[in-house]
């Protein structure tokens, strides 16, 4: 996209240079036209050479025609130049809009990532707390199991002692 902009800028600069040359030629033609008119006026005052006046008049008409054609060409170049400038402006605006959209999207994704990190941290805290609770419950159950086994053993011992006493009695 940058290469397209560069190419369009180069084209714009080339057309600007052409435009300036055309303007310079127009100025030169206008200067020549003024000189020709002055020369024609002098010829008319002096009335030396009428054929020369006719020739200068034809040249003047030719130069006027050339000047008119150059002015028309200059107008076409100006319109083309304006079209290129407008196109370049639209492309730059589109590029800027796309950059803004991407910045917004990146910002939204960053915010979403931050929220997910917070959620993960909260879940990790809960997992850690649940692990501690589970560990405490397991320790308590192990103690109760050991106590239960001790009571079972004592029960068997007493039962055995009672059975032995019954036999004795």
UniProtKB/TrEMBL annotation:
It comes from the Eukaryota. One of its GO terms (biological process) is de novo centriole assembly involved in multi-ciliated epithelial cell differentiation. Residues 99-126 form a coiled coil. It is found in: Cytoplasm. The keyword Cytoplasm applies. Its main location: cytoplasm. GO terms for cellular component: centriole; cytoplasm; deuterosome. Keywords: Coiled coil, Cytoplasm. This is DEUP1 protein. It comes from Tricholaema leucomelas. The gene is Deup1.
């Amino acid at each position: 996209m940058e290469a397209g902009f560069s190419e369009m800028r180069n084209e714009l600069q080339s057309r600007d240079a052409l435009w300036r040359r055309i303007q310079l030629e127009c100025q030169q033609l206008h200067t020549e036209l003024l000189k020709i008119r002055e020369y024609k006026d002098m010829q008319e005052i002096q009335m030396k050479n009428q054929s020369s006046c006719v020739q200068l008049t034809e040249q003047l008409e030719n130069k006027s025609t050339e000047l008119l054609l150059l002015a028309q060409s200059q107008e076409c170049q100006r319109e083309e130049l304006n079209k290129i400038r407008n196109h370049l402006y639209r492309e730059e605006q589109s590029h800027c809009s796309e950059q803004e959209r991407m910045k917004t999207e990146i910002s939204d994704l960053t915010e979403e990532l931050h929220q997910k990190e917070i959620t993960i941290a909260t879940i990790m805290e809960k997992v850690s707390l649940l692990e501690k609770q589970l560990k405490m419950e397991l320790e308590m159950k192990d103690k109760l199991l050991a106590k239960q086994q001790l009571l079972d053993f004592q029960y068997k011992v007493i039962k055995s002692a009672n059975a032995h006493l019954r036999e004795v009695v």
